[in-house]
Write a structure and sequence with these properties.
The complex is a heterodimer of chains A (551) and B (107). Chain A is α+β, with helices and mostly antiparallel strands and 551 residues long. Chain A contains 18 helices and 20 strands. Chain B has 107 residues and is of the alpha+beta class. The chains are: A alpha+beta (551), B alpha+beta (107).
């Protein structure tokens, strides 16, 4: 993992001291709320429906055991005993007091964490593949480049007041687990014929009220030109992005207005001016950053362990967990374990302080003290030895973290919705809970197979509903919560935008509608065919007729 | 420009220190308890807003706003679900916070 140097530490400590002073001035009345609001937002502090909310950055979703323990401590000491993991691989605390936030930030700084640039019209936390550095299907670990982006974008003077917020995602794998095509800039690491590393660069993706899939403006950007090219893209956006209308201010609107070819042309023209200056870091610095992400020394072990198979043969839930919640590691005899934060009846993405402590302890014991947060709001223990799986699952299950539903219907991305969020129009969490109750049977879930349901409580799309195989969008209809159903989206390498099926439903009707959609799929699917493939083959009409009973 | 609300209204704000959603009360304080909330319309509402603005200026609360109210038996309830949510707390964590005395199924 990356470790702060003296410069990082000085910068973060200075920001904590500065914010402490700003909070004191606000409490004394020397700063008005109008003056203070942009300051607190720059430090990740929102004012939500019931309380302040502090969003803490988890750079590219990588955490150490010590960092997770600190998050548990903060949840316990300053909050109400839990936190919420988000689709930007961050964590949010829902109940901090304003006067205590400087202390929280100081505690975070002790473990090399902060809340800088988790809000505001700046470059936000860079997200990445949760299995980065631990999966066989990647060209290379994307995290050194994510770290370069983090350093380059932190306090970048030119890009601290962009027309609107700006989100990067980067993956090193052909299988896209980071939804890169849905980001302002998406980066896919590739290797050319000469064995050189480079990046496919996509711009103008985004969700929100205008969902757009990013467009490739460069097929292969050489590694050495990485930051200067990013700077050129951002400069074109910063100069021409709309500032007159916040709903039209994201880069996707500019890319659509200019056309991707013209955006690429302007980027290349800008880049020509800056590419051989001092923006790109020397190869030695890239190597230094890469050295923080050296793969752990794992012993090559057999792919099968009899004791694990025996345990699975006696325990259906463990067997299901083994199938759904673990995936191959690049070193034989190891897996990545995905800990579902979607217990049936629970709150998607939430973890208690005790659960966080347990995950930290398991990471220390079994996964090189490393933890990942996925954009699908789960936690990952990378680098786990196969033989340890029964013990890990037993501990997780006792703590309510053993749900075997990763990748299945109930492993939903769900935003906090109107239960917490000041922007929301409708509640998301109770709908998710009702869905998990309806689909509580693991054998049924297994039979339905891989299915991504994603839900947002408003059009801002924090729950990625446009990218769901099945999306659910909460809307406000004359003061009543209603829910639209969308079908056919994908956040993966075959990215597609889900389409609204028809009129919305109330909170009960939406669960029935979802069940009808699933029933159509089960009736129509061909051997081995997953939901999205069936939908793409047969189209929306069959689903529509079933859901609205119009056949 | 905010949509004009018709009928009785109450004043909702967040406390400065903990962000708690609070209502301006009939005796000029702020409380999470809607049974104490003042309400009014027209000139009576203007008076309430002026008093509430003074509280904000005195650094007690943040962003006081008039919200639509339903009045029943001389008691005001937030009309819109978002404000009702603020009065009651998260529906999915009824065990938490100052809202625990509220029944989620009631007004």
């Amino acid at each position: 993992m990356y470790a702060y140097d003296a410069y990082d530490r000085t910068v973060v400590d200075a920001r904590v001291a500065e914010f402490r002073d700003q909070v004191e001035r606000r409490v004394k009345g020397d700063l008005s709320e109008e003056e203070f609001r942009p300051i607190r937002l720059m430090n990740g502090l929102y004012l939500q429906l019931h309380a302040y909310m502090l969003r803490v950055a988890v750079p590219y979703g990588t955490l150490s055991g010590d960092q997770m323990r600190k998050l548990a401590h903060i949840a316990r000491r300053y909050d109400k005993g839990y936190g919420h993991f988000t689709t930007r691989q961050n964590i949010q605390f829902n109940w901090p007091k304003l006067s205590e936030t400087p202390d929280i930030l100081a505690e975070l700084a002790d473990v090399e964490m902060h809340a800088i640039q988790t809000s505001g019209n700046c470059i936000r936390n860079v997200t990445s593949d949760q299995f980065a550095g631990a999966t066989a299907d990647e060209v290379t670990d994307p995290r050194p480049y994510a770290e370069l982006l983090r350093q380059w974008s932190s306090f970048h003077p030119e890009f601290s007041f962009l027309p609107r917020k700006f989100k990067f995602a980067i993956t090193g794998a052909a299988t896209d687990r980071a939804a890169v095509k849905w980001h302002d800039i998406g980066l896919i690491i590739k290797e050319n014929d000469k064995g050189e590393i480079g990046f496919e660069v996509l711009v103008g993706g985004g969700m929100g009220r205008t969902p757009v899939i990013g467009k490739t403006i460069r097929e292969f950007l050489p590694e050495k030109d990485f930051l200067s090219y990013m700077e050129a893209i951002l400069r074109v956006y910063n100069e021409q992005g709309r500032r007159d209308n916040k709903y039209k201010a994201r880069i996707k609107i500019l890319v659509e207005a200019l056309g991707a070819d013209e955006y690429a042309r302007q980027t290349e023209a800008e880049w020509e001016k800056i590419k051989d200056t001092t923006i790109d870091v020397p190869a030695e610095e890239v190597a230094r950053i890469k050295s923080f992400f050296t793969p752990p020394p794992l012993e090559v072990l057999p792919e099968q362990v009899q004791s694990v198979d025996d345990f699975a043969s006696k325990n259906f839930l463990f067997a299901a967990w083994l199938q759904n919640n673990t995936n191959a590691h690049k070193v034989s005899g190891h897996v990545n374990v995905t800990i579902s934060l979607k217990p049936h009846g629970g709150i998607p993405g939430d973890a208690t302080a005790e659960q966080m402590d347990l995950v930290a302890a398991l990471a220390d014991e079994y996964s090189q003290s490393e933890i990942r947060v996925s954009h699908e709001q789960n936690l990952i223990l990378p680098h786990v030895t196969l033989k340890d799986l029964p013990s890990i699952w037993t501990d997780l299950d006792e703590a309510g973290l053993g749900t075997a539903n990763v990748g299945l219907l109930t492993d939903m991305i769900v935003c906090p919705g109107l239960d917490y969020c000041a922007l929301a129009n409708a509640r998301s969490i109770p709908i998710a809970q009702a869905i998990t109750k309806r689909f509580d049977d693991m054998k049924r879930l297994q039979d339905i197979g891989p299915l991504k349901v994603k839900m947002s409580g408003c059009i801002n799309s924090c729950g990625h509903h446009h990218a769901g195989h099945i999306g659910i969008l909460g809307v406000d209809r004359k003061g009543e919560e209603m829910y639209q159903i969308l079908l056919g989206g994908s956040g993966a390498e075959d990215a597609s935008k889900a389409g609204i099926l028809g009129p919305g439903f109330d909170e009960h009707g939406i669960v029935d509608a979802l069940e009808k959609v699933v029933a159509v799929y089960l009736g129509e699917r061909e051997e081995g065919e997953e939901f999205l493939s069936t939908y793409r083959r047969i189209g929306a009409q069959v689903f529509k007729e079933a859901v609205y009973d119009t056949a | 420009m905010a949509k004009k609300i018709k009928g009785p209204q109450m004043i909702l704000a967040n406390q400065l220190d903990d962000g708690r959603a609070v209502f301006f009360t009939r005796d000029g304080r702020w409380s999470a308890d809607t049974s104490l909330a003042a309400y009014g319309e027209d000139s009576a509402l203007d008076t309430l807003l002026a008093k509430a603005a003074k509280s904000a200026a005195n650094n007690l609360v943040v962003d006081p706003e008039a919200i639509g109210a339903i009045v029943d038996n001389n008691r005001a309830y937030p009309a819109h679900i978002k404000h009702a949510m603020q009065a009651k707390g998260p529906s999915v964590r009824a065990d938490l916070g100052y809202q625990t005395g509220f029944d989620w199924e009631t007004k």
